[in-house]
């Protein structure tokens, strides 16, 4: 993204953002509610065009390319994608149908290779045992994993995850963080961007961070350089204490006595 601004009426959702993600990088985009994180992800996913500036994705430039050809190269998982899945769709088909760019349409026959790949991804996300269930019968955490598996079905070159751990219980969050960490450390995994509000949800293996506040970048770069108490406090407009334990981060408001 170069000089990217997104306006709605007189409000700038994003203001003059410069950002580059290389293919071997795993980024976390962190910021408070309303900071513009989802807007950034929608731009990166070719789901939205900027009001000004240039968005280049996988060697294509938004506005000069057919987004319908670009989108299958990008895996996008968000609460909105989960909501679009029909509740009566069988979990295995939710995943396998991504390869055919359909949602909610059950084909008579899928290729065996595709079905195997879908089951492999469900296994990777720890939900293979739910393959024959209908999507509507799953818990929120289970749905999240299925939608991530779906996002990976097309072997995307770019994987975008919008708040994958939101709404999960502690065990579910920890399990998902571990699975995303394994993915981040796989050299064959695609370039990834994960949006979150919580430093606790940053999977080990993620390399870079971008901190966003009110549509503007507070800091961006290597995770260890960017994730400081100072930057985090500016981003969330609070005096925050940040601790690192092994390869995980934890934050809370500073208690002054
Ligand atoms: N069409 C629109 N018109 C006006 N304002 C909008 C529009 N779409 C989004 N916004 C506003 O833009 C801001 C950024 O939204 P965005 O969804 O990108 O934030 P976010 O950082 O993902 O927030 P959250 O963490 O709450 O999901 C919000 O204040 C939102 O209300």
From TrEMBL:
Keyword vocabulary terms for this entry: ATP-binding, Nucleotide-binding
Name this polypeptide is given: ATP-binding cassette domain-containing protein
Family matches, as SMART domains: AAA
Gene3D superfamilies: P-loop containing nucleotide triphosphate hydrolases
PROSITE patterns membership: ABC_TRANSPORTER_2
InterPro entries, sorted: AAA+_ATPase (IPR003593), ABC_transporter-like_ATP-bd (IPR003439), P-loop_NTPase (IPR027417)
Residue ranges occupied by any ABC transporter domain in the UniProt entry: 1-239
GO MF terms held by the record: ATP binding; ATP hydrolysis activity
């Amino acid at each position: 993204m170069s000089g990217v601004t997104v306006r709605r009426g007189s409000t700038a959702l994003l203001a003059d953002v410069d950002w580059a993600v290389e293919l071997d990088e795993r980024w976390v985009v962190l910021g408070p509610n309303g900071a513009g994180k989802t807007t950034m992800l929608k731009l990166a996913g070719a789901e939205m065009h900027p009001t000004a500036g240039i968005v280049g994705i996988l060697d294509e430039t938004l506005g000069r390319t057919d987004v319908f050809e670009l989108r299958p190269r990008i895996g996008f998982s968000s609460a909105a994608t989960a909501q679009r899945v029909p509740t009566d769709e069988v979990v295995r088909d939710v995943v396998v149908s991504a390869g055919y760019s359909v949602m909610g349409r059950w084909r008579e026959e899928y290729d065996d290779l595709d079905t195997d790949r879908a089951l492999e991804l469900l296994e990777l996300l720890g939900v293979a045992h739910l393959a024959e269930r209908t999507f509507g019968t799953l818990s929120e955490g289970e749905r999240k994993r299925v939608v991530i598996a779906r996002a990976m079905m097309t072997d995307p070159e770019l994987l975008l995850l919008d708040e994958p751990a939101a709404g999960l219980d502690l065990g579910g969050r920890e399990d998902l963080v571990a699975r995303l960490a394994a993915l981040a450390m796989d050299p064959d995994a695609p370039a990834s961007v994960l949006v979150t509000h919580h430093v606790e949800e940053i999977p080990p293996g993620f390399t870079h961070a971008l901190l966003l506040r009110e549509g503007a970048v507070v800091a961006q770069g290597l995770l260890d350089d960017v994730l400081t108490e100072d930057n985090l406090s500016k981003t969330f407009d609070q005096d925050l204490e940040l601790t690192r334990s092994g390869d995980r981060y934890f934050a809370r408001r500073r208690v002054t006595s």
